[in-house]
Amino acid sequence: MPVERPAVPLWLRHALRAQAGPVPWSAMARGAAAVLPLLAAVLAGAPTAGVPAAIGALFAGINDRPGSRRTAVAAIGVPAVAGACGLLAGTLVGAGVPRDLEAWLLPVFLGLLGLFAGAISATGATASACGTQVLIAAVIGAGMDLPEPAWLRGLSYLTGAAWPLLLRRLVPGPRRRGPAPYRLDGEHAALAAVYERTAALLAAAGDPAAAARRTALTAALDHAQDVLARTRSGPRASRAERGLHARYGAAAALAEAATALAWTGEPVPGRAVRGAERLAAAARTGSPCGPLPAPPRTAPGLRALDDALLRAAEAFDDAAPPTAPARAPAGAASAPPARARATAGSREPGNRWRPSSWGVRGPAGSGDAGGGPAAGTARRPGTPSPVTSGRRDGGTDGPRDRAPSPGTRGTAGPRGRTGGAQALVEAVAAVARRAAGAAGREYGVRVGLCCAVSAALALVLGQQHWYWLPATAVFLVKPDLGPLASRAVCRALGTVVGAVLCAGLLATGPGPEALTATVAVCGALVPFATRHFAAQTAVVTVLVLCLVALAGEPPATGERVVQSLLACATVLVVGHLPLPGRHGNAVRHRLDVAGDAAGRYLDHVLTSPGDRAGRRVLRREAYRAAAAAQTAAGLSAAELPSIARHSAGAQHIASGLTGLLDSITACAVEADDRAAPVSRGDADHFGARLAELTRAT
Predict the structure, then answer these.
(1) Exposure check for the chain: N or C terminus, fewer CB within 10 A?
(2) What is the pLDDT of residues 282-333, one digit of tens each?
(3) CB 557, CB 499: distance < 8 Å
(4) What does DSSP assign to residue 277?
(5) Could you give the CA distance from residue 80 to residue 73 in angstroms, rounded to a whole number?
(6) Measuring CA to CA, which residue among 519, 639, 516, 529 is closest to residue 586?
(7) 578: phi > 0 → left, psi -120 to 50 → alpha, else beta; which?
(8) Under a CB-based contact definition with an 8 Å cutoff, are residues 245 and 231 in contact?
(9) 51 close to 545: Cβ distance less than 8 angstroms
């Protein structure tokens, strides 16, 4: 009889799993070039002045994630400023504390700073990077013995982080194609990913893989929303930026139709999938999409998909940057523009192409047997659409039906900017409220305890590089790096491997030039190594030990291993302490936010069936919150049982909320098709299901 193998614990499975994705060649090149401030200091005969610059460049490489050039300012620049402030504060406090009181006062200072930084870190990704850098930089400033004054250390740290940020902002990426400006290549890539995930979801409609692909589509929409929120909108926007917002609005409508089809299990013809793929290729290069194949209009979801493809064709046709027409041979007629080619009704064998980017669609539910559009008519911009003329609200294809851009603020509360000091005050107040909440207090207490206990332990043991232990503990306690046990295992393994590699290098007696070259290699590997915590730890260990050698201190590979293992033990003990109050606040907060967003979305679908723009804003917020809840619940479930039990059942609730959103979306699409509100029976069912899920939290 077959022998049952014991199940692998979730925390161990997480430790063995690495993130997939393309090799970030551009980020790796920037990581290698980031060594230039350190190289300049070495050539000037002051290598210690370049050590803070190398640390700032290291954090810049860790935070150099895929995205737009504008988002890099917040992802790299803001945490760098926080880190420079932490380095300045740590240096001043370390210099002002008497030697005989270090073991008492420094842990208190770092513990209080950890309490504040941890609470802030629980409010978002950028805040988490800021909290981590300010705390680690303060630890390094208090413990690293460098001859430079505090202000020069902070300036060197900022210089090291600003150089790769400047490269990210100004240097074009490799293998650029199409007429899109290089400064918007990140936005075009994010938008293309949305269309690619939509095509993948359409291809999987009616297949068990549809759920995973819908999750991937939600992640792509979240990323595109964040990226485009940094672009200008309204009168100040350029033509290229207006085109990006229009194409994002079209992508939101297409994603809604694809979600409805995936929920109902309605098969999607291959030609419709190819249409979404053509849109993805056009979005990546900023070129027109040309004529698109139209699906049969035989079901509500397919009719919504057809209308969404029409809208996307209009967005790509109107927003495409002008290009110089190719010269036609003598005596030959010039090729018609994209809209004229679409009107001409281009065809390929086996495909029915969209006859016109302005062609009329019949009233919802009408059309010929094959679902084709009405022939012989044309719709001009600004005229009522037969799709919406039968609605009870009398809506048209005007601004009411246009999805708002990610960078605008609407009544439904989309993520965006209001501009000026008021927006800054509102953002700071929101961060303060979240930091003072239950999740912020719980995480802040754990970070403060870990930092204070590890610093006191290192100072009591009399370690020369005592700051390594609390700095390692701060890295380990970050919850966005995976389950606590998984982080500890990966940290221990990566530190041992990195220390062995660096010990072999230092045994050869390298000079400053060789050490600087090693730092450059490690800087290039950091963006690639971030896909697995053990690999990142190994690279960072080699880099840090080389910086210690450049600072003129003796080799300390063994001490590095010992302090890392002590930090792992400290974080595991503190992380499992039974603190007062209710545990699992971070997961519970995410579930509460997701439940509230789902409630607002459902209420809007039931009470404002004609407001498609507002519905899509609320749908984005609801799916975004549900995805964040699923991620938090999954990480909590992968913890050791003593922690995982506090959020038992959270994954089931998060999955239930996501399924409820899918069913609400499919019902809203069907109600649009019938030009009627959601039925009373469906409304009662949705309300009861939402109440059941929110009570379970």
Answers:
(1) N
(2) 888 888 887 888 788 888 888 999 899 988 888 887 654 444 333 333 333 3
(3) yes
(4) H
(5) 10
(6) 639
(7) beta
(8) yes
(9) no
